[in-house]
UniProtKB/TrEMBL annotation:
Any single Pfam family the record assigns to this protein: FGGY_N
Keyword Metal-binding carried by entry: no
Protein name: ATPase
Superkingdom of the source species: Bacteria
Occurrences of domain Carbohydrate kinase FGGY C-terminal (ranges): 278-475
Record-annotated Carbohydrate kinase FGGY N-terminal domain positions: 17-257
Family per similarity comment: Belongs to the FGGY kinase family.
Any GO BP annotation: D-xylose metabolic process
InterPro entries: ATPase_NBD, FGGY_C, FGGY_Carb_Kinase, FGGY_N
Amino acid sequence: MTTDAARAAILEGRTSLGIEFGSTRIKACLVGPDPTEVLAVGSHEWENEFVDRRWTYSLESVWSGLQAAYADLVADLRRRHDVVPETFGAIGVSAMMHGYLAFDADGELLVPFRTWRNTSTGPASAELSERFGLNIPLRWSIAHLHQAVLDEEPHVPEIASVTTLAGYVHWKLTGRNVLGVGDASGMCPIDSATNDYDATLIAAYDELVASRAPGLKVAELLPEVLPAGRVAGSLTEAGAALLDPTGALRAGIPFCPPEGDAGTGMVATNAVAPRTGNVSAGTSIFAMVVLEHPLANAHDELDLVTTPAGDPVAMVHCNNGASELAAWAGVFGRFAAAAGVELDGDAVFGALFREALEGEADAGGLLAYNQLAGEPIAGLEEGRPMVVRTPDSRLTLANLMRAQIYGVYGTLALGMRVLHDEGVGLDRMTAHGGIFRTAGVAQRFLAGALDAPVAVGETASEGGAWGIAVLAAYLAHTDEADLGTYLDQRVFAGAAIDVAEPDPTDVAGFAAYLDRYAAGLAAEAAAVAAL
């Protein structure tokens, strides 16, 4: 698209805006009439807080961060196209899934936002999993709600609504309390036949809490569920002022259903059809595999969620992703600066990742544990990041960095073993997230860890913000094609994809690493108990 054509599209509102609240960055991404063309981006860094032994973000930081990311996008539009937007064709909001935002009848937050990262819901998760006959993970909204019931928290009788972060932001911008089906599937189990909450399980929950929380009807608390392609409201005057305090943005812009980061990751990697899957790596790391048929058994390592269109998905979710790796990169970046060499973040990562290629296939006997927070799949209630080695291991920079990258994938690989044992078919695995920006390293190691081809596309680093922008753009094409067909024919038909085949040496090396990693989890547990 020429500069003049892009400017005309922006002025005429033939664009789609995607906003995603990630764990460490709030990103905004504007695409043109062709959603593969990114016209501008904006971002704002933020960080969760550990307050009263709970991971949280303040609502004030939600809005200040959103406004900062949007202002950064507008500044990028000025630089690139010399224009300030007054409208868009559609907007979509995405955010970290799960967690607990509970409001009273006046819309006031009853307790601080409890994010997906909290692992204090063990009794609730266990009771619900047994009652429902399927795994209800610690981070799911229904587990947070039920733990509050079990703990007899005083706010429970006042609850009028419960939602996710994406649902909350969408509600404030549009006035509608709705969720995309993918995000809703991380609140409470979904029946893919109806694209709504599972009515049988909803009834079972109400019966379970009838004596503990009289009058609580969970269906009345949860947001309305909408599949991809449905209009989910429009920007109100108050919402426009929240998003753009300068007053330039006009109300009336349609919104797609708000989605979770898992759903936008599936869209961003074209992994919404059966036998496709994706890995999303950031503060957390998770794999999504779209199922052809139900699993034979319930597994603690697997969540059953859905695509944004409502198709069933098996999810391996790990609370800890690349944060510890980033911390080590920060140490080496500071060392370079202290030695008189100034490097930006990408340069530091690039140098360390390329060095990792020189490491031994099994990381020379080193182990790196990335658990900053609790990790249910690994049986850890809290995290203690560690580097562990035996006296005969080979401590080199190359081995250390390979161990750190392997450590990002360690718990994920344990969960993927379960899917393999279930006989789940997988034709294509696509990866996205900032860790894949350095070409040929993290992607190659992931292929070795999964023993499967791993593809990375041009949008790998844009990730979910671009994915929700695509879902917003899909509103104009719902009558033409289902979501999978739209992605295949309109979005990814000409996409440049780089595929890394598993290297047998990497496969064997990672398998040896993973065996040591699994055995060494006892040391992690001991560190949690002792420190």
